[in-house]
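Dear colleague,

Following up on Tuesday's group meeting, I ran the structure prediction for the two-component complex that the binding team flagged. I've pasted the input sequences exactly as they went in, so you can double-check that nothing got truncated or mislabelled along the way. The structure tokens for the whole assembly follow below. Feel free to forward this to whoever is handling the docking comparison.

Inputs:
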Amino acid sequence: MSTDLMSADLMRSGLLRAGLPSFEQICDAAARIAPYATVTPVLRSARLDALVGAELHFKCENLQRGGAFKFRGACNAVWSLDDAQAARGVVTHSSGNHGNALAMAAATRGISAHVVVPEGAVRAKLEAIEQAGAVLHRCAPTQAAREAMAAEVQRQTGSELVHPYADARVMAGQGTLVLELMRQVEALDALITPVGGGGLASGCAIAAHGIDPALALFGAEPLGASDAAQSLARGARIEAFTADTICDGLRALIGEPNFEALRSHRTQVITVSDEETIAAMKLLWRELKQVVEVSSATVFAAVLKQREHFAGRRVGLVLTGGNVDLDALPW
Amino acid sequence: MSTDLMSADLMRSGLLRAGLPSFEQICDAAARIAPYATVTPVLRSARLDALVGAELHFKCENLQRGGAFKFRGACNAVWSLDDAQAARGVVTHSSGNHGNALAMAAATRGISAHVVVPEGAVRAKLEAIEQAGAVLHRCAPTQAAREAMAAEVQRQTGSELVHPYADARVMAGQGTLVLELMRQVEALDALITPVGGGGLASGCAIAAHGIDPALALFGAEPLGASDAAQSLARGARIEAFTADTICDGLRALIGEPNFEALRSHRTQVITVSDEETIAAMKLLWRELKQVVEVSSATVFAAVLKQREHFAGRRVGLVLTGGNVDLDALPW
């Protein structure tokens, strides 16, 4: 059962804001979230530069509120609602960073958030979501059960669904990090983000090309969840697959609008094995001194693997999050 | 055999620059190292603030060149030399961050660095020092052997000894981080640094009180190496002790000028157990997303332990370094 089927359902029901955001909407999002989001630093490392033979600029979204870029999109969605909508709250289904981000974003506006979580989700993550003030709704660990529960919560509360990635408001929010990065670093030649559902990659593509249409765009995807790479290769979106990767943030099927954005912005997706990602993660911890989660490390693994694309260039790498179980490191 | 005896020897031989730096010398140091050192960011965490009930500003020297504040002092010492002295190079004995920092600082001036290291030192650290271009001199793992070897290298090469902490140039360099911090954060009420040999604590005390004589100064020391706390309590410096702590950066006996600086600047030293430090380290990794070494975590452990000193105040905490063996974390 793929995330796609849910998106199709929701699109039919008219509940999903599925189109792509414009560059202007990303600029509006930046203004909208500015009072709440952190302007994250950009870090560099002479050793990592030397290793790749490029000028690497790491955008540290592990230092974003909630420890991940997801707060940007959730915050933009929450503050895009009119007062009547807002009063009815927001809902999503995610046991990961998006659920936590939506809970935190709702708290900034003082509105209710409902997060549907499957039985068996990591307890620490659920505690964080509850601590942020959201109401948890437990359901069976299947996609169908999650959607049914989210729909039920919507019916009961009138709350607004904020999809983790196939939502223009969310994509616009994620894209704001590129506006920041391109103010912090002049004349980037290339940008690379991880690709999961594609909310980040698509928002960043639109933002980057809104500023510099010549900027080269790359995505990094685990070999065990390379649906975006395969979809781009065959020119049409794969509609179902089974993820097999340690990168828990990148297991989703790429969304339909997200795929269209990657295709139209000529994003090249590089696939990396989990072993390559874990080695890259350790290097980032050691040299950059940043706690980043495994999904974040795919971008550096990809740059190391295909350095011919990056050598001699000024490259932005988005480190997406730092929510790691310190008692279960992958090395 | 204590570091103190070595200092006394060297002072008698006129080789050690043992006095305290003035505030002006710290300002000069800041200008001197500016082309080479990193202006490190100051990070915050709403959760850690809430935990302590204070406004915590973490100065991230784990992001300094070489992964530790030590580069500041070493760089100031190297660039304080006149050309004739510089041509003969520099020498120190340290298998830790100072050895690496001196090697890196010497490289910025294109001069030779000699680092005396005891047999049995961590191989990764020695490789880093060699990679930075220094000449390693191995000796038996006793303080006497280290000093003898350093003296021998000095005789053979005419190189300048740069002591890790009982050196005014080094103290002045370490103090520059406070000039930065107090530009980055207005109206700090209190500052806390770890205390080992005291180069950092003394340089920071002079810098801080040069700007704001009312600023409250704190040090954090492992219970198993609490010579500074004991020395301050009895009003005279302990001259020998045996360290027993996991905090490898804080095992040195406090230097004589360093002790005088702490005493005259009314620095209050808080002692923390290794267990408290490890718990604080994990919290810093989890909430601040920073890879910091165990010695760095003493400051946060001290603030957590004696929060009555800090509640409601704006506190600067110096995270001294991030050079950690990721395969041997202490939890």
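Chain B has two domains: 3-8+71-161, 23-69+167-319.

Cheers,
M.
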